[in-house]
Amino acid sequence: MAAQGQAIDALSQFTLTPALGVVGSSVNFTQANLFMVIAGLLTIGMLVLGAKPRAIVPGRLQALAELAYENILKMCTDQIGPEGRSYFPFVFTLFFFVLMGNLLGMLPWAFTYTSHIAVTMALALLVITVVTVVALRIHGLHFFSYFFPPGAPKALAPLIIPVEVISYLSRPLSLSVRLFANMVAGHVMLKVFATFVVMMAGAGTIGVIGAAAPLALNVILIGFEFLVAFLQAYVFAILTCIYLHDSVHLH
User: Fold this and answer.
1) Is residue 175 part of a domain?
2) Which residues, at least 6 apart from 117, have a Cβ–Cβ distance to it below 8 Å?
3) Is residue 181 part of a domain?
4) Which are the contacts of 194, defined by CB distance < 8 A and separation ≥ 6?
5) How far apart are CA 71 and CA 147, in angstroms?
6) SS3 of 241, please?
7) Per-residue confidence (pLDDT) for residue 239, from 0 to 100
8) Which pLDDT value is given to residue 207?
């Protein structure tokens, strides 16, 4: 233990282990996969149960479902245009997959699957693939004019085109690393300060008094992490909308 002089192992919480016992071991079904399934079931449950009453004066769950639907739909139409309605299901699914992963990871003994670069990179590659397919479907080969802005001097083409291509291909990297880094950093900080609390509380009366400071800071960090959970899901969704806008309108 840390109290006995060992280093604080703040990264062990991200280790993947088989879930569901022998079944999980045989098919390599980890706790990350388990919480992805839970996230999907919770999202579907919220929408189905929220939409079921269809009350004129909505209850809390119906109001939550309607608020989520309306705000993400507005995000799509504001950022993409009227065409955004076609891409609403995709953006909505992405938003809640990321959000649920972030929020579930705040629960005791839960796992934050968005803290793994493999998950966030897969999501980002999915986004860039969809964005590229949409652009090619709408504009055909004219899509490649995106990499050379209209009116730019042709003499600068050897410089501008590689820069634009690199910028385009860097989108999934920035999209994935932003989410992954924020989740990892937040949970590492929580683990470190929680360990400080336990260490100091075990050092007698003076230690218990001294533990108040890191405990208070950890409570503040937990509130901040909930804010970051929503913010990162929003950022992921709105950047997806911006990329879709570029594909639809080619600028």
Assistant:
1) yes
2) 176, 177, 180
3) yes
4) 218
5) 32
6) helix
7) 95
8) 60
Q: Residues in the chain with pLDDT < 70?
A: 1-8, 201-211, 251
Amino acid found at 223: G
Establish if 103 belongs to a structural domain. Answer: yes
Predicted local confidence at residue 206, as pLDDT: 61
Taking a C-beta distance cutoff of 8 angstroms, is the pair 54, 217 a contact? no
Per-residue model confidence (pLDDT) at position 208: 63
Contact 105, 115 (CB under 8 A): yes
User: How many domains is the chain partitioned into structurally?
Assistant: 1
Cα distance between residue 28 and residue 18, in whole Å = 6
Q: Which residue range is the domain that position 221 belongs to?
A: 16-249
147 Cβ contact partners less than 8 Å away, ≥ 6 residues apart? 160, 161, 164, 165, 168
Which amino acid type is present at position 189? M
Q: What is the distance, to the nearest Å, from the Cα of residue 205 to the centroid of all Cα atoms in its chain? A: 42
Neighbours of 4 (CB within 10 A): 6
- Determine the Cα–Cα distance for residues 84 and 78; give it in Å rounded to an integer: 8
Q: Are 199 and 135 spatial neighbours (Cβ–Cβ below 8 Å)?
A: no
Dihedral pair phi/psi, residue 30, rounded to 5°: -95, 175
Spatial CB neighbours of 33, under 8 Å, sequence gap ≥ 6: 19
**Within a domain: residue 164?**
yes
234: its two tokens: 């929003």
What is the pLDDT, as a whole number, of residue 86? 93
Tell me how far apart the alpha carbons of residues 63 and 68 are, in angstroms, rounded to a whole number: 9
Which pair of tokens denotes residue 23?
């079944």
Which amino acid appears at position 54 of this protein? Answer: R
**H helix intervals, 141-211:** 157-169, 171-201, 205-210
